[in-house]
């Protein structure tokens, strides 16, 4: 082969490429296909983790946040935006691949991902909240029947969400080394409080090098759960034991007594069902949790968004999720009413009579008064 001729052709090709790059290229609009019309139900669910009907309900829920005011620039419609985000969450691949599958550019795919994620984060309080007393009682009964341990309503554990590389856009008060965890990769230490079905609380604001006990001690959910003494929280050996949090006995201590070994076996199984199995289902259904390629802030929002989808799947659909949310709101209103009555009863007699006179116009019905007093008695027994 003539080396001079080869390099001469290479230089000419390079100059031709430079000329082409210097010219303004025309816009190319790829064909955007509705996946509901070109896929079967099984194919659709395999790619997006949801049925066609469920994706339609999700689109209706997020429609106001995803729709554009005008059609200028051919914006991506809300349904396709939801499908792009679901494809990215359930595929764990690059954004350009998600865009190519939907007929849009990588930048458009990222914008869809950001818009859908932020819309779900704004609704965080609608699907991530602490359980009611009835729900905690039901969970404790299931755990009692399965593991023979009474009064366990939830479990707490930390999960390392890895980054494929050092996270970007880190705040000024943090360094990349803080995200290097004990498992030898960059990650976020995400604390999760859950039972065997639902995630009740999530805290994904800590670097991977932070110890689980430190996250728990500084969390708001700890202070909330410590207000009651009726139910226990299961934790692993890394958490500090307290009146509410139970953990296994140390191995040397348990080796000396059979009853302690039996307790360790049972609480380990209970904690596995309430935390480790939840983590496994979470990462299996949404492989994006196995390796984040986005910056720090967007990665934290993606974690919260996938919790919504996990709750949606656990509820079995939008109707059940909305009914669950409605029950939660009614429970919170009832708790506010009971708290007011509790405060009125424990005030001095003169103040209590004055408050009753002020509220008399709103509580004329004797049956309502009797019902409130019954609720108050149950509330006092619960918090005592």
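Sequence proposed for the structure above (384 residues):
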């Amino acid at each position: 082969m003539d080396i001079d001729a080869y390099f001469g052709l290479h230089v000419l090709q390079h100059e031709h490429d430079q000329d082409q790059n210097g010219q303004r290229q025309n816009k190319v609009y790829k064909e955007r296909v509705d996946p509901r019309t070109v896929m079967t139900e099984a194919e659709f669910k395999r790619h997006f983790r949801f049925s066609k009907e469920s994706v339609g309900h999700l689109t209706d829920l997020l429609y106001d946040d995803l729709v554009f005011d005008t059609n200028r620039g051919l914006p991506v419609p809300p349904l396709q935006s939801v499908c792009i985000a679901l494809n990215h969450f359930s595929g764990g691949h690059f954004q350009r691949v998600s865009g190519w599958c939907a007929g849009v550019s990588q930048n458009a795919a990222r914008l869809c991902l950001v818009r859908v994620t932020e819309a779900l984060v704004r609704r965080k309080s609608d699907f991530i909240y602490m359980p009611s007393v009835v729900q905690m009682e039901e969970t404790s009964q299931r755990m009692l029947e399965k593991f023979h341990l009474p009064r366990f309503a939830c479990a707490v554990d930390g999960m390392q969400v890895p980054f494929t590389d050092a996270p970007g856009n880190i705040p000024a008060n943090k360094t990349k080394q803080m995200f290097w965890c004990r498992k030898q990769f960059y990650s976020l230490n995400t604390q999760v409080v859950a039972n065997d079905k639902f995630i009740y609380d999530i805290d994904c604001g800590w670097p991977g090098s932070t110890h689980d006990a430190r996250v728990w001690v500084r969390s708001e959910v700890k202070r909330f759960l410590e207000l009651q003494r009726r139910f226990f929280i299961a934790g692993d050996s890394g958490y500090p034991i307290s009146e509410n949090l139970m953990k296994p006995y140390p191995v040397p201590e348990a080796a000396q007594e059979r009853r302690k070994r039996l307790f360790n076996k049972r609480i380990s199984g209970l904690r596995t069902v309430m935390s480790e199995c939840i983590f496994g289902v979470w990462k299996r259904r949404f492989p994006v949790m196995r390796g984040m390629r986005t910056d720090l802030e967007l990665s934290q929002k993606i974690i919260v968004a996938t919790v919504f989808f996990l709750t949606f799947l656990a509820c079995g659909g939008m109707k059940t999720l909305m009914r669950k949310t409605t029950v939660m709101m009614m429970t919170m209103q009832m708790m506010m009413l009971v708290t007011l009555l509790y405060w009125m009863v424990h005030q001095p007699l003169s103040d209590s009579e004055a408050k009753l006179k002020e509220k008399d116009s709103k509580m004329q019905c004797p049956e309502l008064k009797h019902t409130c007093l019954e609720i108050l008695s149950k509330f006092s027994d619960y918090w005592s």
